[in-house]
Structure formats: structure tokens, C-alpha cells
């Protein structure tokens, strides 16, 4: 049926723009709009829309505290419309960490075909959000890294992670539980190019491992996590103990650039049975084929389970084709990945990792 949308935005121009974009080709019905928080809260309670679109940078109001309240009172999929400014990137990342489903960049006057790009992004974000059902028990605290994780030794392997809608929040939950000596990690998270550097910096502040935006020819070492820059493919080349990042501008794969399929396929080819792959929440099927290649190459493959996903799309696609050897709750994935790359498995049998 129709996905119902509520538009909360203080600019009348943006409210009518969003309404016209969403109602243009059917599939969506804008059931209400508001310019202030009091109105918005009452209307959301009365209308129970499927999706809320929100400007988190409203000059007269704190969009983040509104989002936090809504997520407590009535958890629902929220799509933010944000600007490209540094402040905009920070607020948007905060909102994604609070559990907003997705962010769409406002068109800028300088952008060719900016309006068409915005219309397409907004519609696909609202479609994904409308199909997601946020489970009530989503935000469980992550399993602490096993007490012995930092004393464990790891093989010269590598861990690849692919994520899309819901991934910012998921990564923010699991990356802090990797110990400082963890094998190198490479992440593909679908997000606008302008956000990935800031995203990496914020993760770096929250983690024991070092997190950086990947650069071409950057060597990977233990304790380093690289995040693919928005708009560029990330591959790992070289071999165990000497992996190097390669960035590429080839066409999108599985609808995305960067693509998790591209990352996982490179890990399959260059790491084989010393590679682990985690496929997290997201719409669509990016990562499934690549994860299957990794499994066939002898690597260890895991999918986030349905109960802990914001959108059980990508992990489901992987499960359907036999690409994931195991599905597990989000907070258990780090321990599983570390266990399969541990050089002394007996260390991890102390019951610390379940």
C-alpha cells in the first residue's frame, strides 16, 4: 500500500518541495506537515505516519533533541534532509547515531541535475524507511570485547564490513568493541562522499582501534580500520601481512559506489581463508555476491540477523544464496570475527566469547 509520510520542516518552500517530490509518481502519501515541534508531536501521535522527514538544522529549533524524544516516545523511521556544511555533516551523523534511518542531501544551486538527484534520493530513502520495522530490542549494549581479546594473537588476516541503511548506528555500536591489536578492518558504508571523512573521525574518537578514511595505496596494519570514501570503490590488494588499499572510480556495482561486493571480492581474491566478512543492515543486495566469493575462497562469512537489523535486506540476500556461514545478533559479530582469525583458538575458549 501507500507509504504515509509526515513532513517536519520550518521552511514552507522545503515542505512543499518535499511533498511534490514524494507525491509525484504515487507510492507515497504526505499525510501532514508541521513547522514547529509542538504541532509536529501532536500530529505524529494522531496520524501515526510510516515515515517522518525532518530537517535537523532548523534555525529556531533543536532538531536533534526532537529526534531523540520521538525515538523514545514512538520509535519510527526518520529520513533527514541535510546540508553539506561541516555543521550539517556533524548534526546528520549525530542523528544517524540516534537511530535515524537515512539522510538525503539538499540540492545545492551549483549541482547539475541537483533537483533530480534529490528527488531520486528522497524517494528511495523514504521507500527503504517505509519498509523497515525498527525492532524494540534493537539497541542492546554490545558484548564487551572478550577479556582476553587484547592478549590474543591474530593471524595476518583482514575483516571486511559492508553496511547501508542503519549502518551508521550499527558501526557505532560494534567498532568500539574491537581491541587495539585487532586484524585490519575495511568498511564500506553507503553514504554521501562529503560525510565519510567526518564519519571516520568520529568513529576514531570512540574506538580503541584507529579509524581513518581510506586513501589510495594506504597500507593496512593491525589495529587500523579504513572507511571507503563516499563515491569511490575500495579494494584490498597484496596479501596477508601486506594488504594495501586501492581506490577506484569504475561504475557502480549492485547500485553502489563504494560497493560491498567489490570490497568482499577483493578480500576473497587476496586474503582467502584469512579473510572474514560481516554484512550488516541495509536495503537491497549489495555485498551478497562478494560474500559468497569470500565463503568459496575459504573465508569466514557472517550476516547480521533480522532481529537486530534496521533493514534486513542485504543480509537476507546473502543468506538466500548461501553466502553467510552464520547469522548473528549485531553485538555478537565482533567476537565471532575475532575468534575465527585468532592465532591461538584455545585462548578464546574460556567462555568469554559465546
Protein described:
The chain has 354 residues and is an alpha/beta fold. Helix content is 34%, strand content 19%. The chain has helices spanning 12-23, 37-47, 63-73, 86-97, 114-131, 167-174, 193-206, 260-270, 288-296, 314-320, 333-340; strands at residues 3-8, 28-34, 51-54, 78-82, 102-105, 158-163, 185-189, 210-213, 224-227, 233-237, 244-248, 275-279, 300-304, 326-328. It has a seven-stranded parallel beta sheet with strand order 8-9-7-6-12-13-14, sandwiched between helices. The termini are far apart. Mean pLDDT is 88; it is low at 135-139 and 346-354.
Which key phrases capture this entry?
14 strands, 11 helices, 354 residues, 5-stranded parallel sheet, alpha/beta
Name the poorly predicted regions: 135-139, 346-354
Largest sheet: 7 strands, parallel
Number of strands: 14
Question: Biggest sheet: strands side by side, in what order?
Answer: 8-9-7-6-12-13-14
Shape: elongated
Instruction: Give the helix/strand class.
Output: alpha/beta
Mean of residue pLDDT?
88
- SSE topology string: EHEHEHEHEHEHEHEEEEHEHEHEH
The span between the termini is: 41 Å
Count helical runs. Answer: 11
Radius of gyration computed on alpha carbons: 20 Å
Helix share, percent: 25-40%
Strand content: 15-25%
Topology:
Blueprint: E1 3-8, H1 12-23, E2 28-34, H2 37-47, E3 51-54, H3 63-73, E4 78-82, H4 86-97, E5 102-105, H5 114-131, E6 158-163, H6 167-174, E7 185-189, H7 193-206, E8 210-213, E9 224-227, E10 233-237, E11 244-248, H8 260-270, E12 275-279, H9 288-296, E13 300-304, H10 314-320, E14 326-328, H11 333-340
Parallel strand pairs: 1-2, 1-3, 3-4, 4-5, 6-7, 6-12, 7-9, 8-9, 12-13, 13-14
Antiparallel strand pairs: 10-11
